[in-house]
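Input set for joint prediction.
Command: fold jointly, output tokens.
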Amino acid sequence: MNFSKGTASQTLSHVIDESKEEELFAAVCAHAKQTAVLASVESLLGWDERTKMPVMAGTYRAEQIAMQATLVHRQRTDQAHGERLAALAESKLAKVGSSQTRATIQLLQKDYEKQLRLPSRLVEAIAKACVEAQQAWAVAREESSWPMLQPWLEKVFALKREQAACQLPDRDPYDALMDDFEPGARWSVVAQRFERLRAQIVPLVRECVDSPQRPSDAVLKRNFPIAAQKQFVHDVAAGIGFDFKRGRIDTTDHPFCSTMGPDDCRITTRWDADFLPTALFGILHEAGHGLYEQGLSREWFGLPPGEAASLGIHESQSRLWENMVGRSPAFWEWCFPLAQRAFPKALANITAAEVQRALLAVQPSLIRVEADEVTYNLHVMLRFDLERAVVQGGLAVADLPAAWNERFAKDFGIQPQSDAEGVLQDIHWSGGLIGYFPTYTLGNIFAAQLMAEATRQLPDLDQQLASGRFSDLLGWLHQHVHSQGRLLESEPLVEQISGHPVSETWLVESLRRRYGPAHGLAAG
Amino acid sequence: MNFSKGTASQTLSHVIDESKEEELFAAVCAHAKQTAVLASVESLLGWDERTKMPVMAGTYRAEQIAMQATLVHRQRTDQAHGERLAALAESKLAKVGSSQTRATIQLLQKDYEKQLRLPSRLVEAIAKACVEAQQAWAVAREESSWPMLQPWLEKVFALKREQAACQLPDRDPYDALMDDFEPGARWSVVAQRFERLRAQIVPLVRECVDSPQRPSDAVLKRNFPIAAQKQFVHDVAAGIGFDFKRGRIDTTDHPFCSTMGPDDCRITTRWDADFLPTALFGILHEAGHGLYEQGLSREWFGLPPGEAASLGIHESQSRLWENMVGRSPAFWEWCFPLAQRAFPKALANITAAEVQRALLAVQPSLIRVEADEVTYNLHVMLRFDLERAVVQGGLAVADLPAAWNERFAKDFGIQPQSDAEGVLQDIHWSGGLIGYFPTYTLGNIFAAQLMAEATRQLPDLDQQLASGRFSDLLGWLHQHVHSQGRLLESEPLVEQISGHPVSETWLVESLRRRYGPAHGLAAG
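tokens >
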């Protein structure tokens, strides 16, 4: 009797512990989902600012965003949430729960601790400095005046170094900053990979430029009426699988993709009546981001299993659709008749092959956001090396313009005539986005490696794309990438999917294979 | 020495008190302005839901709005805010401050106490019941099934009665509910005025309908391409003074005007390619609301001196531009050439006078939102009498359909064939907007009384309107209405401006003067 009583009591206490753990887990999930609701409202404020807001409403919008950001930060650093997470970290659930449960506990705790180690004084100082630095940047770029921006960048870099030291004191400061965008990334690994990539892209660009058989993009520089472009890119986005019941397209100056809820992902583009690729590839890129967002788990929205793995993985999805699919002959077999219906005048007497070839023109140029697919990575790697040198102390902010121009000449064979076309062209540093640039080229590397594996597993993929059937590719990405959420960091995720460690090899191979023939280069 | 020391100390303590009062006042203002920021974000969520949101995003949007509403309610009932207001109420500032300061203290305290007397249990119960009742309403109207809605309306009316008893226990329950929309209004005064109005409108409608010389609206029922309508109504709104640097126009199902900041007022309309007035008068109406919002004090945004006086005054501004201006011969002298340029086919071989006369067709009909200016008030007064009888206990919810049909036959000479065209047509009751309907007709009464005074003070107003100069009228409204904010309740405000107590006389006179000749009725 005593014995059985004891057993019952032990069993009961065990049951209570387990149900208590489940309760704790439900509470931290509910808290994180509330944070997501607050953050999604901040996203709406940002989306509206960049697409719809009347011009004079900016000052008040800044107040609205600042207040919402404060609410989000307060929610994220809530002490009770932290205590529940600490208790859960020691729980059985953290050891034997499902992979989603374990990742949720571990990543929410990591996020919480990173937030908590950031003093709110520093959060405010960074927010304020970045708003002011971005305003200074807009004027400095307009007037091509580096001295106007330099003191602001010195301030921002100093604050970001402070942030790195607070948040991840044991890590190299640049690694600490990259962690916000590419969790777990190490500069030493990335730098070696980028050096190998650069060593192959610089000569490829030279070969393309020196070739007597360069494609011309003249056929894309005709009149494409904007109203027809709007319908056309909508149809293309819907064609590849972007769900307009759960999303929309709007007009903006600097295209982006923003998510305001599990069923609300909005993509944007700009329009050029005299150059079709501006809007079309803007939309293919952003729709690639959008397909990832729409493919994330709705059930886990706001929690790690329903979040993107990293910005690099995000970029791999946009680049895959924009470049690997969108510039392929197969895609243009499907897309060209749509385009001809939309632009009967501009595309009369032209073939799909001519358009597709025009999309492969390689031309070194000064501005990153206008670069072709091949030279693009050179722009990114230059920024990665320079910002890293500043963060790690090897380069003074004051020396950025000279370092920029020297490196640019080396990689591109041309040099900016003004800082506006050089070191002043991007908003990222003024906005505190330091450690962000490498994710663009990591995205290209991941995209090529994933596409190689998708092509291997879907042997008739080209025929499918040519007939407008994108569902197998999208389904493959959904199964292997989207549905994985943030359970793995980017490198283990790509390795798990492709069966190979991450390498630039696939990107180099893909660029040579696709751009070489278009420029009459010899194979291999 | 002692004496003079004592004086110095007394003076100092007086100075400290005054500076302490100013500090308290600054704190309550800052708090109210923060509330306004939170509430403006809620407005953006609502605007976006009704104009841009993807169809499947509704469930999450409800969560976003509910969370933002909770934040607003928490902020509004903040105890420290209440204590500061209580201290200020006893202060010298509340007695000898500027009229703005005194109104701010008094009205913020009134708002705070009304909010505080509402238990959060009841706030939640009403919010939940109204969401569910509105969903039930949508189905019930679709299927024209009163029994589907009745239990929900019973619940909503019961909860609203409870709200009235909590918030203003000393007032008649219907007066308490009206106070949310028309502060200080009394049903007994409104009912007497409405009865006098009804006694004159019912025979006017009969005369119009029986006249052998009725205007036809056939010229407005042609093809007006939507793209041209969009440009046209934009130009008309800009023409009367709506500032597009501080606002915009979007498409929606049920037109509204919404403000998201001191420089961000957005109006909406719907489009009918075969009937021009739908969009045009939608925009004239909403732009009238918008001009009021854009005319409120930017400096006092979020505080009573920068808030609208009441919904009735708001409606007076929309109705004044929509009806008193927008249906006048002078306005069409200016507007018709614009319209002809926008719709050259539809308006070929037609004159301004023909269009303007077509806009004055009186025709009793079943649906309020499609009613002409004269019969519109009969729709409103019917709802006022019925909802008041339910709130005051003289009518059971179950008896609403029969009461509706009986009264409708009496006032309009026709009867709905189904409840969908009758008692089920409006969303207001399901949405908890009880005590709201009378503000529509109060707005018409205020508009006529204000327009009579404006016409007296601006003797060449007709010539101005005919030449597209709206700035004098707008300036007059700004000076007398917009810039007054919420300092006076609606009736004292209209009396102060016009020099006469509020009366339906001016509305009756205006309708007879404008609609009589168009229907060939004898003068007087």
